[in-house]
Design brief:
This protein has two helices and 16 strands. The chain is mostly beta strands and 409 residues long. The chain folds into two domains: 55 residues; 353 residues, Porin, CATH 2.40.160. A 16-stranded antiparallel barrel has the order 1-2-3-4-5-6-7-8-9-10-11-12-13-14-15-16. Strand 11 and strand 12 form a beta hairpin. The chain starts with a helix and ends with a strand.
């Protein structure tokens, strides 16, 4: 009898122990889950507190990304973690020029500081703005060529890979540098004259553009914009195209604003290759270019060729222009274990901005050979040095040594 009572007591104790162990295990697991959830809530609070202090999540520039052919920093808003995006670029340089005439000159220029401001109303409606401060800015009553300007301000309506809409003042999709003019994207201190005088970069006009992919690796852009105003470029010699831009600052008061049309296609189906063509035409001008940018490991080759013709040019004014450049470079640090880059390059360029003049005559092409080197201590920072040898008619040959620094953020 006693044995039975003892056995029953032991069984009851074991059952109670098992019940307590199961309850403890369940409680411990519940506590672990609560701790995990509290950690997640704490991290969220830390992130939100950081956002309250800074105003937004910081997004760094991804130098591997470009939206619709824009520069890396100009594309930043499209990949931003926050509705508000702040980016930009800057560059300054020193140049010393020796002329055949013996008139040597030198210059130090705080060339550009350009902030980008972007805002996402939604993931599909995006504002992108570029402000530009040139030559140190401008001051009332001060002499000099400094100015402040809106270089683009547009709304993007993103629908799908094949069709998107851009409305506002924007960069025309011509050549290589007009849309990708940040200093880390080209090797020379100065932008090539082909893309300053013939494709008048930075060329921005008001209008509307559709863009997207025709098929994979084949993209298009098609737009209508305010046309060049050739009356503004009259008598400007080699700068007749450049000075005809209306942009965001041109005077259209009491003028009939004409329509210009731009079409572009680009192929990127080979790794590291961009090749394409662009065309612009308005009632007075027809312009086209072919362009190439090829990166293969440490080697890079890029260049543009363009031609322009003008209808019914007044006597004495240019009616045809042509020119181009090719830039070949190789990263010297690719032979080392260093992560930085140091491309050595040579660029050959020929620019005939007045290849034909109405009524007869022409101005010979300006030939420029430039050799130089870049150093990238960081992928967003570049130091440049180059030596440009320019040959032109009437003993105007000159050699220019230039140094510069540039950055994007």
């Amino acid at each position: 009898m006693k044995t039975s009572k003892i056995t029953l007591a032991l069984c009851a104790a074991l059952a109670l122990t098992n019940t307590l162990s199961a309850d403890d295990t369940a409680e411990i697991n519940a506590l672990k889950q609560e701790v995990k959830e509290l950690k997640e809530i704490t991290q969220t609070l830390v992130d939100e507190t950081s956002d309250l202090k800074t105003g937004f999540n910081y997004t760094t520039v991804d130098t591997t990304k470009s939206h619709s052919g824009l520069g890396n920093a100009a594309s930043k808003v499209y990949y931003s973690k926050s509705p508000l995006s702040i980016g930009g670029y800057g560059e300054m340089y020193y140049a010393s020029t020796a002329n055949e005439t013996g008139m040597d000159t030198s210059k130090v220029d705080v060339y550009r500081f350009v902030p980008y401001i972007g805002y996402k109303f939604t993931d599909n409606i995006i504002l992108n703005v570029e402000l530009e401060f040139e030559h140190g800015g401008v001051k009332d009553g001060a002499e000099g060529d400094g100015y402040v300007i809106i270089e683009f301000m547009y709304l993007d309506f993103l629908f799908n890979e094949n069709a998107n809409l851009r409305v506002g003042n924007m960069l025309l999709p011509m050549g290589l540098i007009n849309e990708r003019h940040e200093p880390t994207l080209f090797t020379t201190v100065q932008r090539p004259n082909t893309e300053k005088q013939l494709i008048p970069s930075t060329w921005h006009e008001s209008g509307i553009m559709v863009y997207g992919d025709i098929i994979e690796n084949l993209s298009y852009k098609l737009g209508g914009f305010t046309a060049l105003d050739l009356s503004m470029g009259a008598g400007k010699g080699n700068n007749w195209l450049r000075d005809s831009r209306i942009g965001s600052f041109g005077d259209t008061k009491d003028k009939k604003v004409e329509l210009g049309t731009v079409a572009r296609v680009d192929y990127t189906g080979v790794n590291g290759l961009l090749v394409g063509a662009s065309t612009y035409f308005d009632p007075d001008i027809t312009m086209f270019d072919v362009h190439l940018d090829y990166n293969l490991n440490a080697f890079r080759a890029y260049g543009v060729y363009t031609q322009t013709s003008r209808e019914d040019a007044p006597v004495g004014e240019p009616q045809k222009a042509k020119g181009g450049y090719i830039n070949l470079g190789y990263d010297l640090l690719s032979f080392t274990s260093w992560s930085e880059k140091m491309p050595l390059f040579v660029q050959f360029e020929s620019v005939a901005a007045q290849d034909e003049i109405s009524g007869g005559g022409s101005v010979d092409a300006i030939e420029t050979t430039t050799v130089g080197i870049n150093y990238f201590p960081h992928e967003q920072v570049v130091l440049k040095a180059d030596y440009a040898m320019k040959k032109e008619e009437n003993n105007k040959d000159s050699d220019t040594i230039s140094l510069s620094m540039g950055f994007i953020f």
